[in-house]
Amino acid sequence: MSEMVLVLIGAALVNNVVLSQFYGLCPFLGVSKQVKTAASMGVAVIFVITIASAVASLIYDLVLTPLDLQFLQTIVFILVIAGLVQFVEMFLKKSSPALYQSLGVYLPLITTNCAVLGVALTNVQKEYSFATSVVNGIGTSVGFTIAIVILAGIREKMENNNIIAPLKGMPIVLFTAALMAIAFNGFSGLI
Amino acid sequence: MSVLTSVILTALVVGVVGLIVGFLLVTAGEKFKVEVDEKEVAIRAELPGNNCGGCGYPGCDGLAAAIAKGEAPANACPVGGAKVGAKISEILGVEAAATKKMVAFVRCSGDCDTALDKCNYLGIKDCRAAAVVPGRGAKHCVKGCKGFGSCVSVCQFDAIHVVNGIAVVDRNKCVGCGKCVATCPNGLIVLIPDDAKYVVQCNSQDKGKAVKEACSAGCLGCTACTKQCEFGAITMNGNVAVIDQDKCQKCGKCAEKCPAKIIRER
Q1: So what's the pLDDT on residue B95?
Q2: Nearest 5°: phi and psi at B235?
Q3: What's the rounded Cα separation, in Å, for the pair A138 and B123?
Q4: Contact B32 A63 (CB under 8 A)
Q5: Which of A17, A85, B54, B72 is the most buried (most CB within 10 A)?
């Protein structure tokens, strides 16, 4: 049990997927204008990563390893992830068109969010069991959500600030992200 | 395991996983079907599908949705012009508004023969890069066409080319999407009506003497044309003449009087 908690905290805070591993920067910068859309993006990513790591782990353990086809991991994982994202897209389009609109192009881009594939491959690499893989997936995606929501909060406040012209827009956001990464460095002694 | 079995297994695994994912998606697609406005689909079918963004919406899908909702006029697509506008009006059941065909026009005539160089530019061969370095490119005239063809690279219709060191628009191919207008760092390119007859082919804000030293085909800012025009169609924007194409009656007196011969008949 304690091992699971360690994996969870380690994935969410210590090895934060965005701020210390630099995965998934595209949605991190692209969908962090408002806290609300950032949070929904986070939830979508949690859903996709959790299911993707579960399915990927199952496929790896039950299909690829017995057949000695481990080299297929990347391509099969991509296939599964793409399918999942398609599903999430359909679901959102039906259930919440407003959210679908505000997530825009970044929703299908979860497919290419390397964090998703990254988690699936890390699980295999570290030889995590099925349960540990799922926990690692949850931890990683929660870490992504924490990071994107915090950045969105800061960006919302920053809207009212008088930022000098050369730093307006993306540059100041990148500075903010860098400072956040340094702050998250403080978690490194936790485990 | 022999090579053959592993190849077959590989194909089987990927194929079966793909089939399962596809089957699940089809089932989910049926379940989560969203009713799309029929009009929107019909309008989208009429739009050119270049996704150039010339209308200001994110691609043709975005414009189709906006037209269907009534947020954009039926003739909002600059690429399709009057033809597509009429078809979309038919779908919407409204009268077609007349659209004027607009084409891009490069307000510079400083080609390799007329414009003088002040240095040998060895920087990045891109107008946008050359525009930010000190000296702003090779030509004496900093406002002129740099001739590296940033506009050429953004044109999706093969309608603009660099000929003899200066960008030239092919009026037959140009659809007036405005991509090049937004790209030119000097703001040299403007959209004018395709039937415009007389144009000022210079954008230099320098005084007459400085213009002469930099380029033999430049507006000297002498204001002779503004005095000539009976219709008040020509005004001075700083040191360069500008023709208001809505007012221009195509008499050609300005072109006759222009001492630098930069008001030209197209």
Answers
A1: 59
A2: -125, 165
A3: 49
A4: no
A5: A17
Q: pLDDT tens for residues B187-227? A: 889 988 888 888 888 888 888 888 888 888 888 888 888 88
Q: Report chain B residues touching chain A, CB-CB < 8 A.
A: 1, 6, 9-10, 13-14, 17-18, 21-22, 24-25, 28-29, 32-34
Judge: B32–A68 Cβ closer than 8 Å, yes or no.
Answer: no
Nearest CA in chain B to A82: B21
Nearest to A79 among B9, B17, B34 (CB): B17
For chain B, the maximum distance between any two Cα atoms, rounded to a whole number of angstroms, is: 92
For chain B, where are the E strands, in sequence order? 102-106, 160-163, 166-169, 189-193, 198-200, 234-237, 240-243, 263-265
- A144 pLDDT higher than 80: yes
CA–CA separation, B45 and B15 (whole Å): 33
Pairwise CB contact (< 8 Å): A91 & B9: no
ipTM of predicted complex = 0.71
Q: Which regions in chain B score pLDDT beneath 70?
A: 1, 94-99
CB contact under 8 A, A79 and B32: no
Interface touch A90/B32, C-beta < 8 Å: yes
pLDDT of residue A141: 93
Kindly report the backbone phi and psi dihedral angles of residue B214, in degrees, each rounded to the nearest multiple of 5, phi listed first: -90, -30
Contact B14, A72 (CB under 8 A): yes
